[in-house]
Design brief:
The structure is a homodimer of 116-residue chains.
Chain A: H1 21-30, E1 35-37, E2 44-50, H2 54-71, E3 76-80, E4 83-88, H3 98-115
Antiparallel strand pairs in A: 1-2, 2-4, 3-4
Chain lengths: 116, 116
């Protein structure tokens, strides 16, 4: 199992390598709450996070938004009452990149350290 | 044409009146950028707002989140790079209520006053 939460995002270009099926499966096996969303144009790593109210969900939205700005890699964030859904993928390669494993892991870590 | 931006949200109960088809059509006729989304469980008033980058989109997300908290009525907010999609509906009546016209108008007004 690779610990992606300690890794750093690298700039992603159009010819960057796509994550392999085996890398995706390995990530999902070790991150049970995440799943591969295929109801969108390109596959995404997605997870829903539950909260007691809207304002806590808003706080988490801002924490992940700030992470995205720091890393220069941006997810889609669906903010609803008591729920935030985060989806990571790499637009430039229209697929998943190792950066998406890294940011998903960091998202998970921020949730666990601040909201659990 | 009713100016909903000056109205105030009332508490919405399960037996509150649903918006009529004619009220919905009237609202949409006078708010061209909004549309009735039907790809969800209950119909929603939805609009996409474009921005130059992620951080401006995040700012708008927070402005609308703060509005939602003040009014005690919460939309879904999809935050992406350069785009925010806002959807208003009334969970309690599983439909649209006059509150959704009011909050959609206030959303529009906040966008126009701060980002246009």
């Amino acid at each position: 199992m690779i610990d992606y939460s300690n890794k750093i995002c690298e700039a992603c270009s159009v010819d960057a390598p796509k994550a392999t099926q085996s890398e995706i499966e390995d990530f999902l096996k070790n991150h049970n709450e995440w799943y591969l969303a295929t109801d969108v144009e390109f596959p995404q790593l997605r997870r829903e996070f539950k909260f007691n109210d809207f304002s806590t969900a808003q706080k988490f939205t801002n924490i992940i938004s700030d992470l995205a700005e720091e890393e220069g890699h941006h997810p889609s964030i669906l903010l609803e009452y008591g729920k935030v859904t985060i989806s990571w993928w790499s637009h430039k390669i229209q697929s998943l990149h190792v950066n998406d494993f890294i940011l998903s892991s960091k998202t998970e870590e921020l949730y666990n350290s601040k909201f659990q």
